[in-house]
Amino acid sequence: MLLKRLMLQGFKSFAKKTVFEFDTNVTAIVGPNGSGKSNTAEALRWVLGEQSLTTIRGRRGEDFIFAGTPGVSRLNTASVSVVFENSARQFSIDFDEVELTRDVHRDGENIYRLNGTKVRLRDIIELLSSVSLGASAHHVVSQGEADRLLSANLEERRDMIEDALGIKIYEYKRTEAKRKLEKTEVHAKEVESLRREIAPHLRFLEKQVEQAKRAESLKSELLLLYGTYLADERAYVEDRSEAIASRTELARNKREEIERAISDLGKLREDVPRNAIMAKISERDVLLHSTRERETEEIRKLGKIEGALEGKKEEKERLKESTEEDEDNGATVPITSVAAFVGELEGVAEVALVSSDAESARGALQSILVSIRSFLDRCRGLKVEKSENREHVIESEIQELEREVGSGRAKLELFLRERGGYEHEIIVLRAELDSLVSKTRDAEREHYELDKKRSEILNEERMISLEMSQIVSMKEDLKREETEAAVLVGRAVLNNEGSDIQPSREEQMGKRKKIERLKIRIEEIGGGGEEVLREYEETKERDLFLQKELVDLRETSQKLLSIMEDLGNQIDAEFKTGVARINLEFSKYFALLFDGGGAKLTIVRPRKRHVVSLENSGEIVEDNEDVAREGLDIEISIPRKKVRSLEALSGGERTLVSIALLFATVAVKPPPFLVLDETDAALDEANSKKYGDMLETIASDTQLILVTHNRETMSHAGALYGVTLGQDGVSRVLSVKFEEAEQMAAR
């Protein structure tokens, strides 16, 4: 099977219709970065049914439609077609060429076509699965996807290797077998459900056939049983009615007596003047508080008056002492009086000094002496007069203060008497209130007990009422049963006198159940014995048919389980065989790229990690559990290095390991074609040469399409396509020579 051509129109940067013809076994697509050359690999994966948009650098369907540039209008549809050569009929359709087309519109609608006919995505996937193709990464590989083989977890890596080995077709078949098994099991459960539904009816019909032969004997038995039951039931209902009537009267009398007592207690509680006493206490508290405040205020005023009185007495004493001292030592006069007097003396002295007459001078001095004596007498008279006046004023003030002190003390005495009276009244009132509270509590306790008894009696009355309702209902049921019995077995059933000893309710209920069973059996048997027999035969035949169908379904389930087991064994065997073969090639390619060393895939069983918190201790423990499906790990040994884990590899080393594993997988199970999108980008010149030699090896069995910048890789291509991005933002394709391809890749 050969990939003949790829056609793009409106897909990403390929606005115009572009055709890639793959006439040789190795085709290289080159071009500068950003030219759109990798869009060809993405287009191929997309047309083969890829559903993960992020894998091909998109978030929604319209991201794959040419968005337009300033010079070229945007498009509303992207279309990609791929054509396979099918002359050997690898595809199970009768065409020499198989053309798959996928269109996407801006509204997100995807349309799939097979040789021009619209089909479902599922049809495309099933067709490609039949030849080990699909949207998976094992035959369309980018640089990042090659590394996915290394970065994947154990189970993901197994899925990738199984996909590359072509084992997925068995997984698909096993999934289909599982789906059929589930459908078969559902059908089997439905058949079992039908049989379960039929079984009771079938057993019922079998009994009916037997009971039809006993119809007459059952009626006789029912007549006797029914008569006894009805007579005993009438006696029971009458006895219960009388007993309930007596209990009702007794309970009513008790309740009325308690309600009268409760009413009397209520009146007693209303007559208690508790609130009035509390109001009086509150009133006396207010008066007492007011009296205490006035008493305190009066004490404060009296203290101030007594202090003032004491001060006046001290002032009077000081004035008295001062007057006596002035009389002994002379009086003092204000400085202004002295200054005026000095001025007078200076005038007289000047007259004496300037007088030339001795007699005149003597007369002047004599005048001075007289003036001094007169001034002294005047001063004494003023001081004495002033002291006497002040003493009279102070005495008057003292007398007034003493009167105020007497009045204040009288008020205090009055306040004390008032306060004592209020306090005594409060004590008396509180004692009266305590007595009333005690009586009230006793009354409330008695009221509580009476109310409790009343509730008990009310509950009893409700129970009696319920029992009475039950008796009424029983009377109605009894009347209805008597009517039914008379219709069913004749009125003679009403003449039975019943049992000598009243039976228990359990015995009566047992009779009632037995009567109902007899009635049902008689009613079911009726007069249609032949119809019952015919229905029994039909139901039995239906059950046998379902039983046979269930056996067939269980045989089918066993076959499907066997197929699933065989497919599982085949998958396991081919997987292990494939891994062993891959390891041979993996080790060979690894040694070629690393100049020695070795690498291999190892089959391991992953373990699930459970974190468990212990409530009591607060500790956290890990519980590892084996999973059912085995995974793949990678072991490597690089010459002159102790590196054993993939995480310790450099970026370049990871690239070489991923290339070795990729080529080993391809060598074991060569795909019809392989697209390598710049998987050689990180290789140096020496490794590029090795990479080219490896391409030559796998090209003998697999058609190669190489998206590359690498000169060495280009040199192995039989045809070269150059992709450029024009000034209008549209990718164009040219068929170029090797030298031209080098120049385009170097831009």
TrEMBL record:
It holds the Pfam family SMC_N. It comes from the Bacteria. Residues 3-731 form the RecF/RecN/SMC N-terminal domain. Signal peptide: none annotated. Residues 302-329, 384-446 form a coiled coil. Keywords: Coiled coil. PANTHER family: STRUCTURAL MAINTENANCE OF CHROMOSOMES PROTEIN 3. This is RecF/RecN/SMC N-terminal domain-containing protein. It comes from Candidatus Vogelbacteria bacterium CG10_big_fil_rev_8_21_14_0_10_45_14.
